[in-house]
Amino acid sequence: MYKKHKSNHAGTAVMVITALVIVLIVSQDRAGRILRLEAEIRQEAESRITQTKFREVLIEEKQALQYRYIKGCPLPEKVQREIFHICEDAATSFELVMSLIYEESGWDPECISDDGESVGLMQVQEKWHAELMDKTGCTDLTDPVQNVRVGIALLKRHFNTYQDPAWALMAYNGGQAYAERILRRASRYERRGHL
Q1: Which of 4, 95, 105, 148 is the most buried (most CB within 10 A)?
Q2: String of b and e for 139-160 (b: at least 16 CB within 10 Å)?
Q3: Up-side HSE of residue 16: CA atoms within 13 Å toward CB?
Q4: Whole-model pTM?
Q5: Separation between Cα atoms, residue 144 and residue 182, nearest integer Å
């Protein structure tokens, strides 16, 4: 004879409800984690965009603040800006270099002296400085920017040798009076400020 089993619908229903609740909790937790992750990703992206924009603004402001030129100098602003950046790259005083250029050529990029031997803004002589020309990529000493690259490389070499601005300037092209004039003028440029 068959024994009738009394079905336990109540227990099964509880188990099904419990399983559904667990699935719902897990789904909500997963959905919550996904939402938090999406929010974090969005925040990170916004932060990076903000940081990038901030960096761009900072770079522009830094360049605007750092760039200077000498009042009264007839060289175009573009050339002075190039000289400024060459000085900055060589860790050399812009004011000192501009004072040296004034002393050497009166800021005249077409200046040629010493029977055609000394050329350009910094009066570089190819016969003595061909190696520095090669090193700096100079192919034309009459080009103001190329001329200054070679001149600053030469001046930097003298700074490294003598460890003193006056001695470096004397080695560049002259005696003590020459060096003193350049240093005094550079000091005036620094005191007067720049545009």
Answers
A1: 148
A2: eebeebbbbbbbbbbbbbebbe
A3: 6
A4: 0.67
A5: 20
CB 112, CB 118: distance < 8 Å:
yes
30-59: pLDDT as tens digits: 767 777 777 777 787 777 776 776 666 656
Between 34 and 146, residue with greater pLDDT = 146
**How many residues make up the chain in this entry?**
195
Q: In this structure, are residues 117 and 127 in contact, taking their beta carbons and an 8 Å threshold?
A: yes
Residue 12, class by beta-carbon neighbours within 10 Å (0-12 exposed, 13-18 middle, 19+ buried)? exposed
Contact of 106 with 70, CB cutoff 8 Å: no
Runs of H (alpha helix) within the chain: 9-66, 77-89, 94-105, 126-136, 144-162, 165-173, 176-192
Phi, psi of 186 (to 5 degrees): -60, -40
- Residue 120: band (very low, low, confident or very high) from pLDDT cuts 50, 70, 90: very high
Which conformational region is residue 94 in: left (phi greater than 0), alpha (psi within -120 to 50 degrees), or beta? alpha
